[in-house]
Amino acid sequence: MAPSLGALAHDVLLEILEDLDYKGLMSCQATCRRIRTVVASSVSLQYIIELAACGMLDGPRGTQRLDVTERLRRLRLYDTAWRELHWTKEDKYPPLVGRRLPFIDGNMLIFLNLDQSGHTSGYTSHRIPSTLRGVEEQRLDFATKLPSLKRIVDASQDLIISSGRSSYSSYHLRSLSSGDPHPLAHNNGVLDRTPERYGGVIIDIFEDLLLEVVMRVWGVEHIVWNWKTGVAEYKAVSLPSVLISSPTVYMIFPPEVEPPRGRYRARCFLDRNHLLVNAGGPNHDSKPVGIHILQFRTGPPPSRSRATSLTEGPTYVFLFPHFTPCLAFETTVAAPWRTVDPLSPVPFYCDPSDRIFSVRTAWRAYDQGHHLSFHILASTFHSYLRSHPFPRGSTWIDVPWDKWGPMGCRVTQRVPSITEACMRGTKILRIDHDPHHRSKPAVDILDYHPLRVARALMLLRSGATPVTVFRGSTLVEPGAAFDGFATMLPCISTNVPLPDELADAMLRGAQCQAYLCENGVVLMQVELRGQRIKDTWTYTI
Amino acid sequence: MPTIVSVDDSTVPGEGSSRLLLLVSSDNKHIVVEEDIMSRSRFISKQVEGFEATSQRHAILLPFSSFVLNKVIEYCSHYRGYYLLEDDPDAAPPGRSPVREWDQEFLDVDRNMLLRIIKAAHYLEIKSLVGSCARAIADMIRGKTTEEMREILGVENDFTPEEEHSPSSKCTG
Question: Fewest Cβ atoms closer than 10 Å to its Cβ: which of A102, A232, A352, B71?
Answer without folding.
Answer: A352
